[in-house]
Input
Amino acid sequence: MINIIWLFMILSGVFMAAWQGKPQVVTDAAFQAAQVAVRYALELIGIMSFWLGVMKVAQEAGLITTLAKLIKPLTGKLFPSIPSDHPALGAILLNISANILGLGNAATPFGLKAMQELQTLNGQSDKASDAMCTFLALNTSCITLLPTTIIGIRLTAGSQNPTEIVGTTVFATTLGMTVAVIADKILRRFSR
Amino acid sequence: MEHIINTISLWAIPFLLFFILSYGALRGVKVYESFVKGAEEGFNIAIKIIPYLVAMLVAVSIFRHSGVMDSMVKILSPLFSVLNIPPEVLPLAIMRPFSGGGSLGIAAELIKTHGADSFIGRLASTMQGSTDTTFFVLAVYFGSVGIKKYRHSVAVGLMADLTTFLASVYIVNKVFLH
Output
């Protein structure tokens, strides 16, 4: 699926640009995006290092395992393939918590740590495991309690009530997350 | 409400930092050494995601700037009229799974043009705040551990995006009355 989508994005773009007689658009878009990708990765190094450092302290203090045990009733159902005291579960919980609170720059390092832990259970294959797919389903559709960025934009735009969209956001994300979890459970069987 | 949100945003990270480090110290962890050991991994992970990110962002960028996305908006427009959804939010709905920065720009533009407290402004706010950039998240997360076969993750992410979008339209209509 990702192969088809990726190919479609590029080929349809080239086709469209050619049809409009503007081939330069494709070249510029490609080069600029490649630069942006590297810049993003480089800027991530600092914040990544910081949170991974904090995570390491939490892990050595036994905090991550404690967290994992705390949410066992929930994760047992969602992630049956992960052992109940595995650090992956602690990292997943931290990632989801950061997402819910709208702490974007902390969510990514926690999430990547969780992926690393999940990969140790995946036998270093290049194919996503069930647990990874479930985690990403949760992650991309995560319930958002505090959409901090958009509240900031509303505030700047002179909204009378910048936070009035919190309720609607919680509703929409709850539905989205529910569908994601169910879809993941069903589609899992067809993509072995 | 606003006050609570601001307080949480301001205090969450300092509190977390204080709690984890003091807890670690009390448990006898050599906090400085442990922190540095963990932080060492940051560089490797960030470098590892570069190829995946380049692949994804280049495709999305070509797709966007060549005008294919705009054509998609045009094609889908009549469908929106039928569903009673304001066509102004269509570009945002299409852009949302592909580009975080791009969709944030569109959302900010809609809020500025129509007003934050207009129906479209509220709908755009809800849509933007409600979901993550599916393709970007997949590229970064899977890329960090060298996963190339995404299985059903793409389909699940897009289904969630569609659900969140339709739920946003429904609830904003219901709460704020069109």
In short: Chain A touches chain B through 107 residues (CB under 8 Å). Chain A has a mean pLDDT of 92. Chain A has two domains: 1-61, 62-191.
